[in-house]
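Page 47, continued from p. 46.
Same chain as before, 241 aa.
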Amino acid sequence: MSERLQKVMAHDGVASRRKSEELISTGHVKVNGKVVNQLGVKVDPTDRIEVDGTPLKKERLVYFALYKPRGVISSVNDEKDRKTVLSFFKKVPERIYPVGRLDYDTSGLLILTNDGTLDFQLTHPKYEIKKTYLVKVIGKLNHEELKKIREGVLINGKYKSAPAEVEVIAKAGNSKNNSMLRLTIHEGKNHEVKEMLKAVGHPVEKLKRAEFAGIGLENLQPGEFRQLRKREVRDLYDLTK
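Result:
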């Protein structure tokens, strides 16, 4: 059965589907000895695919949950030579990459895999995958501000965020000037949580993702990871059916 070249590359662990498309467009990929730089090309199981001269080898699909510490880049590599999430996976032979991203100063759950199909589905806006954060903010939110977040808040005068779930957990520490929130969103825009809270007058001081697509941190400590259970992987695919 023929499949799109970028999908096959993602399945075989070369890179995410988006990155595979970049490799194709920039002439890094050959099919049966000929360079292919047009997206949409379909290949058969018998076709020989090479990336920068290296034939594709099917890797076993692996799935990990990482507790990303603050001060680590959610990337495979970094041009400024900063520490990346892959530094925690030096003994993992598969070519894994993060599903989505967390900001440099944001900690919490990050899924890494070499399954390009799942990566694509979990990050595509149409699937509205839920992400839950624990947020320390400056000040105490009133009823009207919480209502705005729950209904969608205007950000930078440009667009309105999607409705979010939010609850005040407690005051943060002993300070009356900070609050701790639990906030769940299903959008994937950059800095979404920070922008939402900034828009209602409560800048974020600290941000941690506690859950992504139903996967939690469990007992992980910053810098630790675990392999996802088969049931968890099935549940992730069920979310995008």
